[in-house]
Amino acid sequence: MHMDGPRWKKSSWGEKLRTLLGWICDGFYPRRCPICDEILEPEEAEQKIHNICAEKLRYVTGATCMQCGRPLDNDAREYCYDCQRLWRIITSEVASSQKLKQNQSALHRQMGILQNEVPISQGKAIYLYQGPIKETMYRFKYSNKREYADFFAEEAVRIYGDWIRRKNIQAIVPVPMYMPKQRKRGYNQAEAFAQALGRKMNIPVDVSLVKRVKDTKPQKELNDLERKNNLKNAFQKTESIVQYSHILVVDDIYTTGSTAMAVAEQLRKTNTCQVYFLSICIGKGM
Prior knowledge:
43% of the residues lie in helices and 13% in strands. With 286 residues, the chain is of the alpha/beta class. The protein has 12 helices and 6 strands. It starts with a helix and ends with a strand. The protein is globular. A 4-stranded parallel β-sheet has the order 1-6-5-2. Strands 3-4 form a two-stranded antiparallel sheet. The protein has helices at residues 4-10, 13-28, 42-45, 51-54, 81-94, 104-113, 133-142, 148-166, 179-185, 189-201, 224-231, 258-267, and strands at 120-128, 171-174, 210-212, 235-237, 246-254, 274-282. Helix 12 (258-267) links the parallel strand 5 (246-254) and strand 6 (274-282).
């Protein structure tokens, strides 16, 4: 009894209200499994997923890229092909007269030299974008399945909670949507994930720090140059009296990394800060 009392007192009225509303909503609208979208039995409602469906999830495990968190096929490498390609692009822009040597040690030295040129310090992801999670992400994005965000946030805390704390994250910033598109859809799935994660980690979510001022084509349909031009001037940092030194940018799916980099560039434009990235899913890459 002594332990329960203080825990309840420490909860904010907002948390209590959300809990109460959650109980009411569960009564009228039973929770559904984020993988198969079928109603969960009462004994499975707390874990928010069917046991058999949980076995189908493919987590990001083993050796991963030190930059973006993508799984590596070759444990001897430290960076994935996509990040190596990004570094080559940065190198050509920073020192166009010099050619980047292709051996691993030279690449590693170049990364150390150009570290400040890369806006994202490190990235992580929960799942590989393979199998049934693809359909889950489609529903989360286009079928108003915002309730999935709570499950994803719990998974993020379970796997990367300690990592987030070690990075001293002061604010969570979701990748913004183009506002006319967000009004049409009704919500931003990245923001839903960010809000759920912020509540569980007790970290503020700042949705006004960066805005998307230009609609863009899907990055996966474009080549490197087209991706860069597609996102040119797509995001804009807003004026803010709050200056964060450690920021976590979140999104639903990490594919090429161009969008995350563009957002991070804006965050670092007028403020020297460390930007980290967390996505629900990540593609296997090249």
